[in-house]
Structure prediction request, 168 residues.
Amino acid sequence: AAAVIRDAVPDVEVLVIGPTDEDPDYFASCQRRVAELKLENTVSFTGRMNIFDIIPSLDVMLLTSISEAQPLVLLEAGAARIPCVATDVGSCREIIEGPPGEDPPLGRGGFIVPPMDPHALGAAVIRLLLDEALRKACGETLRARVEHGFTSETSSDAYAALYRELSA
Prediction:
């Protein structure tokens, strides 16, 4: 996906955020892939870091997982008004596009793409990077969705309602 993005946005910086020491063989294969695609000037591996230290510098957050439950990184990005592109796994679609019956419907906070489809991922990122108004609107939408449906208070209320229903 980084190669697809770089072809349309030559000065893009792609940061791979996360530990590099947990699986040395996997990290080495990622480094080889970056070299094969001649992305050394585009892709940087940050290593482990506090997401709150890096998030203010991001234009778009990507989550390329093939399996997820409820990825907190999307909620953290949304709280910071960073639009997201994520694969259609777990609750990514609900976070980015809103749950069924969202009231009021808030709209899109980014884009959902099929897992393991670098061209779709790249196209979605390019769309956000090249359209500042869309990027800002998606960021604002995602912030509103996080504030409306994903706060500690909202979660606590939902659990309390579920417990009341189950004990009735």
